């Protein structure tokens, strides 16, 4: 059985607790970013851009068998690493699970306090956009 | 316009029947005015005058020239804006590396730079620049700090590429 959102969050918190310094944390995030599957060019459209990010972030979502699946990319590699973690936590869950996720791991790994405010705003904008997709799919479900 | 904050000096008269507010601008300046900053302005001006504007300019030029020289040796780094008489700011891009990533890694090393459009988005769009990294040097910065910036940049580029 797949992990719950909380379990994946706990996994990430656990992984980050192994690093002694922010140098190591960033190298890990950069590594995740470099490994993130590229988003096909046809999705890199204006309407898929997440507003409120300093770098360009494209985010698309797909709704299959009651679960939401995300794909995303950015021109900045640290941002890609952060997206990769967000996707790992939220992708493959139901809209309700996604909407109820508190995403506490972002604080617990120290990300919000470590990024300058203008930069962490972008991270929160990505989470908001992912939740917006979940909300949209949830309302479609009720219409059907 | 209704008042947005209550406090000393913004009231003219209060009775059980009605309250009359002071005239503008006092109506909107409730409480103790910003006297600390007003008082601090004089020592700030004295400080600048004691050092002398020419000396400040010379120091800034020294830092800017040193930074320009050091940063040019970083592979793929392009300085944006090379006017002879510019103030001591250095805006640049590095090929294959996003400005925001560089900013985050430098921040982690205690080096403060600004990244992004610097309120010049239409101009940057016109020249297809996705954003720049910008370091500014002032009278309180040192040559050693410029060297730290150059080393931090070289390291960031190595990790990011």
Structure description:
- The complex is a heterodimer of chains A (144) and B (161).
- Chain A starts with a helix and ends with a helix.
- Chain A has a single domain (5-143), classed as Alpha-Beta Complex (Sufe protein. Chain: A).
- Helices cover 57% and strands 11% of the residues of chain A.
- The longest helix of chain A is centred in the last third of the chain and has 27 residues, at 117-143.
- Chain A is mainly alpha-helical and 144 residues long.
- In chain A, strand 1 (57-64) and strand 2 (67-74) form a beta hairpin.
- By secondary structure, chain B is of the alpha+beta class.
- Chain B folds into two domains: 11-51, no CATH class; 53-160, Aspartate Aminotransferase, domain 1, CATH 3.90.1150.
- Chain B has helices at residues 35-51, 53-72, 99-108, 121-126, 143-160; strands at 11-14, 19-21, 77-80, 89-94, 114-116, 132-136.
- In chain B, strands 3-4-6-5 form a four-stranded antiparallel beta sheet, with helices on one face.
- In chain B, helix 2 (53-72) packs parallel to helix 5 (143-160).
- The termini of chain B are far apart.
- The relative contact order of chain B is 0.13.
- The interface between A and B is medium-sized, with 18 and 14 residues.
Which helices and strands, and how do they pair?
The complex is a heterodimer of chains A (144) and B (161).
Chain A lengths: L4 H13 L4 H14 L21 E8 L2 E8 L2 H14 L4 H6 L4 H4 L2 H4 L2 H27 L1
Antiparallel strand pairs in A: 1-2
Helix pairs in contact in A: 1-3, 2-3, 3-7
Chain B lengths: L10 E4 L4 E3 L13 H17 L1 H20 L4 E4 L8 E6 L4 H10 L5 E3 L4 H6 L5 E5 L6 H18 L1
Antiparallel strand pairs in B: 1-2, 3-4, 4-6, 5-6
Helix pairs in contact in B: 2-5, 3-5
Brief write-up:
The complex is a heterodimer of chains A (144) and B (161). With 144 residues, chain A is mostly helical.
